[in-house]
């Protein structure tokens, strides 16, 4: 998280835009917290979050629509989240288009799945525009409201040695999980 924090501190609102496009919530929450501290404009953070989220999602949608037989789209189709995506899209396509960004793990599978469905590009763009706006405002507001308190508490509860231990432990757990998932037999 500190690298995202430094990235946003160095690049400002552009960093929030790139973080929203690349990974989502953490960068926007940090941007909201920095806005609370007076380092960034809260309006600009919200707009950057909205634009980054909207544009990256539109890009994933268009990649899925134009490259439906491509290697990257085939890779996304094999993910566990993709099967759930298709089930939800079949039941309630417009509702899914609006809410998938709020569910962890659907950042890429959501727009790819939608692009392979019967939802039109125009319908998706309109729903995406509104959903990304609400997401950007909400994540910025949450960062504004809770960010400074969370950062202060983390600083009180942990010194840098503790954070290093937690980071190494987290990375080890992540690597073990990824290794375990790769070694499992693939379901056909």
What does this structure look like?
- The chain is mostly helical and 188 residues long.
- The protein is built from ten helices and no strands.
- The chain has helices spanning 2-11, 13-22, 25-36, 42-66, 71-77, 80-91, 93-99, 109-115, 121-157, 160-183.
- The longest helix has 37 residues, at 121-157.
- The protein starts with a helix and ends in a 5-residue tail after the last helix.
Give the topology, please:
Layout (H helix, E strand, L loop, with lengths): L1 H10 L1 H10 L2 H12 L5 H25 L4 H7 L2 H12 L1 H7 L9 H7 L5 H37 L2 H24 L5
Helix pairs in contact: 1-2, 1-3, 2-3, 2-4, 3-4, 3-9, 4-8, 4-9, 6-7, 6-8, 7-9
Distance between the ends:
37 Å
Q: Mean pLDDT score, rounded?
A: 85
Number of helices: 10
- Supply the helix-strand structural class: mainly alpha
| Major pleated sheet | none
Strand content: under 5%
Please summarize what this structure is:
The protein has 188 residues and is mostly helical. The chain contains ten helices and no strands.
Supply database-style keywords:
80% helix, 188 residues, mainly alpha
